[in-house]
Design goal:
By secondary structure, this protein is α+β, with helices and mostly antiparallel strands. It has helices at 6-22, 28-34, 36-70, 126-135, 159-172, and strands at 75-79, 85-94, 97-108, 111-118, 143-144, 150-153. Helices cover 48% and strands 24% of the residues. Helix 1 runs antiparallel to helix 3 (36-70) and helix 2 (28-34) packs across helix 3 (36-70). The longest helix has 35 residues, at 36-70.
Length: 173
């Protein structure tokens, strides 16, 4: 796998998009007429996004395989087939419900998030679950969420390390 600093790539894409938007004061259908270079900038941004999506996909697949090795006794949860949203992680039981909590890493629109989320079958237990996780002290550094129970942003370079650390803490609690 090629070494790419995805965070730098994401920053470059943002700068290109900002430059692209700033140089286009006209209606969308007139923008490309105003300057032939705008089409080149747009093509460059799309190409950088494709590179970023491919890199992210490679990482998620690599991390998914590594999860199987590091945590063979836990069921994996993953969604790796799309370019706009991808995740991988493991599920753990809560009370008598197997696979209630998912500890996962999630890539969407260039951001990488890791943390605790819940499976739809325990929606009614969400508040209780959030309180339990908070009580055992696992979420001190994480942000309380609405779609996620607790989460935190991380870099692509530290993504798997952070996910693994969270799973180890939770499984030893």
């Amino acid at each position: 796998m090629r070494q790419v600093n995805y965070d730098s790539l994401r920053e470059m894409i943002t700068r290109c998009e900002w430059t692209f938007a700033k140089t286009m004061p006209f209606a969308p259908h007139e923008r490309l007429k105003s300057n032939g270079r705008l089409g080149e900038i747009d093509a460059c941004v799309k190409h950088l996004r494709r590179i970023g999506n491919n890199y992210c996909s490679e990482l998620m697949n690599k991390w998914s395989k590594q999860l199987s090795k590091d945590f063979p006794n836990y069921k994996k949860c993953e969604f790796l087939d799309r370019t706009d949203v991808m995740y991988t992680g493991v599920t753990i039981p809560y009370k008598d419900i197997p696979d209630a909590i998912a500890i996962r890493i999630h890539a969407e629109k260039g951001s990488l998030i890791y943390g605790f989320t819940y499976m739809p079958k325990i929606q009614e237990m969400r508040d209780e679950l959030q309180e339990s996780l908070s009580y055992i002290g696992l979420c001190n550094d994480l942000i309380k969420g609405t779609d996620w129970l607790y989460y935190k942003y991380t870099s692509y370079e530290k993504g798997y390390e952070k996910l693994k650390e969270l799973i180890e803490i939770m499984t030893n609690a």
